[in-house]
Amino acid sequence: MVRTSEYPAVGELVVSSVKSVKNFGAFATLDEYEGKEGFIHVRDVATGWVKYIRDHIREGQKIVCKVLGVDPERGHIDLSLKHVNEHQRREKIQEWKNEKKADKLLEIAAAALGKSMAQAVQEVGTKLVDEFGTLYGAFEAAAEDPAAFKDLGFDKRWTGELVRVASESIQAAMVEIDGILELTSAKPDGVVHVKNALLAASQTETDGGSILVQYVGAPRYRVSVSAADYKTAEEILRRALERAQKSIEQSGGTWKFERQED
Questions:
Q1: How many alpha carbons fall within 13 Å on the CB side of residue 240?
Q2: Which side of the chain, N or C, has fewer Cβ within a 10 Å radius?
Q3: 180: number of Cβ within 10 Å
C-alpha cells in the first residue's frame, strides 16, 4: 500500500495477521506496513483476566489492533486488541479493503502508461496520499470531480488515466447494519399497534441512507439500515428503534432488539 511513513503512529488502528501465539502474548504482522511485526501482550488481548489466550486469538487470524507504542530503533511495535471496539474494527477493515482496491487502480493506470508500480508511487501515489489522506480518498475525489487533480502538477497523461480509472471503478460505498426487532401487544387490536410501530420505524429520517423493515415471523421483524458510513447507520438505527419503542409502549406493548453481527 502507498504509505508516507515507514512505521504506524501511536494510536493508529492497523490491520494485522496473527503469526504466532504464546502464553504471554501474540506476534502479528502489519498488513499495511510491509515487513513490520508487532507484539500484543496477553494483558492487551482482551478485557479482564485471560485464562487461555487461544480462546481470544489464534494463528492466521485477521485482526485490527491499536498501536500503543513504536520504537523504530529496535523495530518494536506494541499493539492492543482489547482497545478496538466492533465499530472501529468494521470501519478499519473497510478502509483496508478500499486501500487495496486503490492500489490496484493505481497499478492499472500505471500499466496503461507503460510504468511500473514503483514509478507510480514515486510520481503520483505519495502526492495523492499527502493531499487526500488516503489513496482511495483521492480516487473518490476524482470520481466525484474530474478536476480534483488539476492543481497537483501531474503530467496530463497521469491525470487523464487516474480520472478514467476512478470514474469507471469508484461508486458511492454503502455500509449496512441490521438486527431483529420483536414487538408484542396483548390488546385485542394488537396487530394494529405493532403495524403502527413498524411504520414509525420505517419512516425514520435516513440522512441519505435507507431503512428497510421486513417480516421474519411474528413477533420478529428484521430492521436493516444502509448508509455512507457506520456512524451514520448507527444513528439512523438508534432513531428508528426509539420511534418503534415509543409507539408500541404507548399502546402497552413490549419491544426487544438484537443486533446481527457479521
A1: 32
A2: C
A3: 15
236 located within any domain: yes
Specify whether the CB–CB gap between 63 and 81 falls below 8 A: yes
Does residue 255 share a domain with residue 206? yes
Residues 6+ apart with CB under 8 A from 39: 25, 26, 27, 28, 76, 77, 78, 79
For residue 154, give the C-alpha cell.
Answer: 501531474
Q: List per-block mean pLDDT (blocks of 10 residues) for the chain, which spans 262 residues.
A: 82 96 96 93 93 94 96 94 92 92 96 96 95 93 91 94 93 82 93 95 89 92 90 93 95 91 58
**Closest listed residue to residue 147, CA positions, set 129, 163, 127:** 163
> Which residue range is the domain that position 121 belongs to?
87-169
